[in-house]
Design goal:
The protein is an alpha/beta fold. The protein is built from seven helices and 19 strands. The radius of gyration is 21 Å and the shape is elongated.
Length: 313
């Protein structure tokens, strides 16, 4: 079967705060952007509940509602928003080719990639069931809701250590679950964690179950050194075992770091392929906030607009 081919001026792949902000700016610049929403329309914010740290929402807003607002605004500006997943790319020559759902080919003069990153989970049924009800993959986003309460965090890298320290300033006790007898975090971060009085570390331990029916009420862990389980009563469980950037489809075409995050020229959204730009969590493993993703989406649209103007396209 012959693939249908469509030519577009500006293609945006992905639909979190970065993709939608890029679409708003690109549409206002008359780049006639076409945005494909990807596997998770709205991105990671659609699996969070209350968002209180995005400017302009004094009373907070639900993550999914916020993403509906972003999408509506992009549509109103004239962005063409569609369902579909990029399954293959060819950046050999312009116009660049992107296969959507393996059947349609989009030929684009410029491309903005905002496919984001997905939090890694332990894979427990209770963890997924209580996601948004005390289970979270972002302490900076959700720690505030558990002020003065007991919480747990699982992980052993720098992010887990940073988030444990962040939580220790808000919560009465932070129970930190570490799978081995040592952490992967940098020495300085480990020292800080160990010196913090209200962080309790459980070495050689793994999470068996998140306890609670409709909200997190506790955590069951297994201490491997003595093969005994322990139930800890608490109000929230934070998973900090890493993120996976959604960049597999770009392998071989775009420069990536060892974890698979797209590399951009500092201070820009430019990738190593001229006319291909990256925004949001696909290229940001440090900040990972809705507001920084939106900012980088704006940068990508402005970079794309300048690129097209220079090329006379």
């Amino acid at each position: 079967m012959e693939n249908t081919v469509e030519r577009v001026h500006c293609l945006i792949i992905g639909s979190g705060p970065a993709g939608y902000t890029a679409a708003i700016y690109a549409a206002r610049a008359n780049l006639k952007p076409v945005l494909y929403q990807g596997l998770q329309p709205g991105g990671q914010l659609t699996i969070t509940t209350e968002v209180e740290n995005y400017p302009g929402y004094p009373d907070g807003i639900q993550g999914p509602d916020m993403m509906i607002n972003f999408e509506r605004q992009a549509s109103r500006m004239g962005a063409d928003i569609r369902y579909g997943i990029a399954t293959k790319v060819d950046f050999m020559e312009t116009p660049y080719k992107v296969w959507i759902d393996e059947e349609k080919i989009i030929e684009a003069d410029t491309i903005i990639i905002s496919t984001g990153a997905s939090a890694k989970w332990l894979g427990l049924e209770s963890e997924q069931r209580l996601n948004g009800y005390g289970v979270s993959a972002c302490a900076v986003c959700d720690g505030f809701f558990f002020k003065g309460k007991e919480v747990a965090i699982v992980g052993a890298g720098d992010t887990a250590a940073e988030e444990a320290l962040y939580l220790s300033k808000l919560c009465s006790t932070v129970h930190m679950i570490v799978r081995r007898d040592q952490m992967r975090a940098s020495k300085i971060m480990q020292e800080r964690v160990k010196k913090t009085e209200n962080i309790k570390i459980y070495w050689n331990s793994s999470t068996q179950e998140v306890l609670g029916e409709n909200k997190v009420e506790g955590l069951r862990i297994l201490d491997h050194s003595i093969q005994q389980t322990l139930d800890i009563p608490l109000s929230a469980f934070f998973v900090a075992i890493g993120h996976k950037p959604n960049s597999d489809v770009f392998k071989g075409w775009l420069e990536m770091d060892e974890s698979g995050y797209l590399v951009t020229i500092p201070g820009t959204s430019k990738t190593n392929v001229e006319g291909v730009f990256a925004a949001g969590d696909i290229q940001d493993k440090i900040y990972r906030q809705a507001v920084t993703a939106a900012g980088s989406g704006c940068m990508a649209a402005l970079d794309a607009e300048r690129y097209l103007a220079l090329k006379g396209l």
